[in-house]
Amino acid sequence: MSNISIDEPRKKLLLMGNEAIARGALEAGVNFCTGYPGNPASEILGTLAKVAEKFEMYVEWSVNEIVALEAAGAATAAGLRALTAMKNLGANVCADFLMTVNLSGTKGGFVLVTGDDPLAHSTTTELDTRNYARLADIPLLEPATIQEAKDMTRYAFELSEELGLLCMLRTVTRLSHSRGVVTLGPIPSKKRLAEFSSQDLWTSGSSSITCMLHSVLHEKMKNVQTKFEESEFNQYVGKQDAEFLIVTSGTGWLYSLEAINLLRLQDDVGILKLGTTWPLPEKLLASYLKYTREVLFVEEIDPFLEQNVKMTAAELQAEGIGPIKFYGQKSNHVRGEFGAGTGEINVNTVVKALMEIRKIEYLPRRSEYSEKVQKIISSYTPPRSMSFCAGCPHRASFWGIKKAIKWYGQDVIVTGDIGCYSLGLLPTGFSVEKTLHCMGAGLGTANGFGNLKKFGLDKPVIAVSGDSTFYHACIPALINAKWNQANILYVVLDNNTTAMTGHQPHPGSGVNALGSPSPRISIEDICKSIGLEVRVQDPFDLEYAVQNIYQMLQTEGIKVLIFRHDCPLTEAQRREKKPVIYVDQDKCIGEKCGCVRFCNRVFKCPGITWDYTKGKAKIDELICTGCRLCADLCPEGAIKVEETV
Amino acid sequence: MSATPLKGPNELQEQVLAKKLCSACGACTNLCPYIDMVEGKGAIIIEPCGLNEGKCYNFCPKTHLDVPALDKIVFGSYREDLALGTNISVMKARAVDSEINEVAQYGGVVSALVTYALETGEVDAAVLAKSQDQISAEPALVRSRKQVLECAGSKYLVCPTVSRVSETMEQIRGGKFCVVGTPCQITAIRKMQASNFETQVDRIGLLIGLFCTWAFSPDVRSLIRETFGQVKVVKVDVPPPPANIFVVQTEDKRFGIPLDNLRRFIMPSCNVCFDMTNEFSDISVGSVEGEENWNTIIVRTKKGEELLQAAKNTGILEVRPLEQERLNHLREASLIRKKRVLTEKEADKVAYLRIRDEDKSKIIHEKGGS
Amino acid sequence: MSLREDPLNIIVTGVGGQGNILASLIIASTAVQDGVSVSVGETYGASQRGGAVMSHIRLFEKRQYGPLIPEGKAHIILGFEPVECLRTIGGFGNQGTKVIVNPRPIYSVDVLSGEAKYPSIDEVLNAIKELADNVYVVQAVKLALEAEDAILQNIVMIGCLIGSEFTPLKNETARGVIKEIFLSKSERYLAAFELGAKEIKKTKPL
Fold first, then answer.
1. Residues 6+ apart with CB under 8 A from A84
2. Tell me, what's the pLDDT at B1?
């Protein structure tokens, strides 16, 4: 909704964190943008893609994060400004290039935005990507507000270009997906041209060259540090020369400010908010630590600031600063639901920490109220687990796999991967999948499970992945399975989109990030070219789907079954006129033998609900997407389809 | 009135499926989404439905079969003939129509009777077993003479015929139909009719039973294909003893596989089956030893009697008395089988069978036992 | 513009797919256009697949606030689903909280599979009443159907919020925001909005 392309400096706009980052890149005159969909960063590239034509930018969804980073790196080597955006785990995928690019140096401004996910809302880990900054010698910026998300992104390009280094901006879910008011800056009109010739050398070298470049990199980082000492992104509020200091970054800042206000500690403590968190502005730190007796660290996920500041403080002891008592994750004062160093922080986290350390009494609500809450909430709020959407083909696929495994009559190992279908681990997917790690791990681990026969494990293995995942990570594992003769039935769930992250296109979609027609790369063609048996099947034809799996389970080697059916939530599907589905109340036998509420209790499509008073199934017209699968499955034929003319 | 105590899928799993006693009759499948027939080889419970009582357990021929109670429901009284079950008459017969005789295995009586019942409107459809390759069998719903003839010929592999019964109720609105089945299949249908569940029982107009000693699992096809490749099979047969072979006839040759090589494919459920002559049908049909063009017929109910008389009087069937020697032989064969089952060492496998104690001792200790 | 509370904390709560995010966007945009600053916190992605969703909308003038409302500090809760409304009050409500709730239940897979029990609507509404100041029950789906489509229930609820005058946000401004978003298709959304705004005025608290 928010139009980030408007050229009105000083105008105030309500923007999402990711939109603000995109706007910051625009204000820096970015030319080349890449990424791979991943929560919470997906909207950054998505937003840039929408305005790509207007600003004559090149925007691409890459097949995975390392190609994304490498392509962008090349653009910067050619003098352009480039941005790559990804979720935290994407940094692992592009780590190889990340470790070498600052050694080789860059030319045009090069900014990497990583989106971390405290509490792992949509991720299989709580990876804190700030650690990469230290590991790979990358200047690191952490925005604390939506305004900073924009301003820091713009600044990151300037810093990067000045020093010839990739710079990193680390955001978290709570910032990326929050909205706030942002004051816009100007968008530059000057255009750039790319230049790179055979005279140019762009490498991190090897042996002594690498060491020399490494030394140059260290010098550059010292340069960065000097700049960071004066950065406007580092702020101090509160008591002058405070003895109790909160050191914080990112979302911790606004949480800490609010916590201080709630506990009325505005005049007692100081808050040092760092926006430039690697390399640390040590002189700046020293100027505050001079007066400090106690420090509380407030940050998301890892004790990154905590450990690095403690190192600085240790060195400062020689100059007579300290001793200082440190509180944070190590002392177990800052903790999420499951302990320190895990989960999301919020205002309450900081309040609790301060209450414990400063021995303050504070009740957010009257205790009688809190007691009432305890009793009531445990009695009247049933859980609400995640579920596949109404009409989702994965529901059909997993039911088919479950049936086929029962037909087979013996234990089968089913490995899973990253996408909407990860929910195959849960009851909504009939708990068919048993493993989940990272992109490509389903087929990757199946390569192991499928070659343990000599050790006595001779069970069939089914590896499940999505279509986007196939292109991203599974092709090498597929080749390995053929080459090393693993026994695997590889089921590709092809719903023609990258659904979980917002329906972005992929190499099989036939369109690119801008929505323009693009070559369609066929999954089955790739499999056939490796010499594999491939079958393509619509999972909604459940009878055939089950038969195919059942038959393929009984053959050796690696074979592929593609379950192909569109996600019901894509634009194209939404635009199609869907029939009205309803339950014939006379034909529905509900709880009786022959059905026992199969559609809503066992198959569990959220489009079907149960009328507890009538004892009959009912279609929830607000949720039903008109896929008709329930009508096919109803044992009494009680679910009817009313075609609209 | 129900002849079976009410129990459900958990007991079905425990007492039948887990013990590999399923005969793939199809009675428990097509009733609900929770039980499947796997490639005609046997039933599988996909997921327990959560009910304690259900049709699946109650219709299964290998769960709680109270023979005297079912006799009473079907025939009105307990059987007097312990060897052959309740019967009005026993005879031999053959079809007169040459078109039927062309495709029949032996006397063509089943094809003739079903065709007659369809053409006279006694039934509107029939559920038979059909084979595409002369080896496997699938249930088929037929309504015309042509379709009946396509189903002619004996099938030696199990076929989930009863799975088509509930479907057929849907497909022929209000009509009556007949079923041709093996003893376990016919028993299942009778249990269905005797149960407390709503089954539209009176729409099953006629039950024609086939004699049966055993049947193969569909797994036998792998051995047959290994031996003969993809050659087209024209007919299969199991000739009577002393021949101990399974005959496979192609277009130009006749092969015999020793039955001993195939015994491992016989369904385990056949080893604990009490019923060789299909004791609960309206009319049972089998072969005649030594006379390839005739069938043995046992008429059991009034309905069966009426059909047979009508077919005989209209000249559809040629009927003759069955020779005493052959009748004795038939009774003996049936009794030997019953004796073996009743003295089965693994008693839990035959625990489903309830017969009166006096009948049990008669069968075990006496010869002939009529 | 003067906020009676600064920050004024509003939570929109419901089930993934009910149009939670669109609702919070409209409310937040209205606030910005009425000259108030906002901070909105919500989660996308996995948690939306049939799970519970909350949007925290914080209106402020004096200084900036983070996107998450602290425990027990919600002033207004807009509940698209009754159990989610209750769950949210449990975490963020207090004795002064005002609640507008749509009483139409959405059963979760946990309930439908028989593992958990969904309380009766009366039980839920009574529980909400015990934990809040004033509770307004609005049959948003029925009203949405009058505006042509049951899916507009979230727009009806926004109408209720603005029409209730618990916030200083103006009716006219909200209508302008709706027109800006939906352009030529605004008619049904405006109709739904108006139905909500009118309905709340004649609704008495429980």
1. A33, A34, A35, A65, A68, A69, A72, A94, A111, A112, A113
2. 41
Residue in chain A lying closest to C182 (CA): A1
Per the CB < 8 A criterion, the answer to whether A69 and A103 are in contact is no
Average the pLDDT over B315-334 and give the result: 94
Predicted complex ipTM exceeds 0.90: yes
Residues A242 and A222 in one domain: no
What DSSP letter does each residue of A569-610 carry, written as one string? TSHHHHHS---EEEE-TTT--TTSTTTSSIIIIIS--TTEEE
pLDDT in tens, B126-140: 999 999 989 999 999
Are A137 and A207 found together in one domain? yes
The pLDDT value recorded for residue B241 is: 77
Query: Are A602 and B33 a contacting pair at CB < 8 A?
Result: yes
Task: List domains and CATH numbers for chain B.
Answer: 89-216+266-323 (3.40.640), 220-265 (3.10.450)
Q: Do A348 and C70 touch (CB under 8 A)?
A: yes
pTM for the model stands at 0.94
- Total domains in chain C come to 1
Residue A412 sits at the chain B interface (C-beta within 8 Å): no
Contact C28 A14 (CB under 8 A): yes
pLDDT higher than threshold 70 for residue A160 = yes
* In a domain? residue C101: yes
C1 inside domain: no
* B370: confidence class by pLDDT, cuts 50, 70, 90: very low
Residue C106 belongs to domain with CATH number? 3.40.920.10
Residue among A381, A430, A498 with most chain C CBs within 10 A, to mutate? A381
What pLDDT score does A645 carry? 62
- Contact list in B for residue A593 (CB cut-off 8 A) is 31-32, 49, 51, 53-55, 197
A633 close contact with B: CB closer than 8 A:
yes
Residue from C64, C121, C177 to probe the interface with A (highest A Cβ count within 10 Å): C64
Judgement on whether residues A494 and A552 belong to the same structural domain of the protein: yes
Per-position DSSP letters for A425-483, written without gaps between them? GSGGGTT---B--STTHHHHHHHHHTT-GGGT----EEEEEEHHHIIIIIHHHHHHHHH
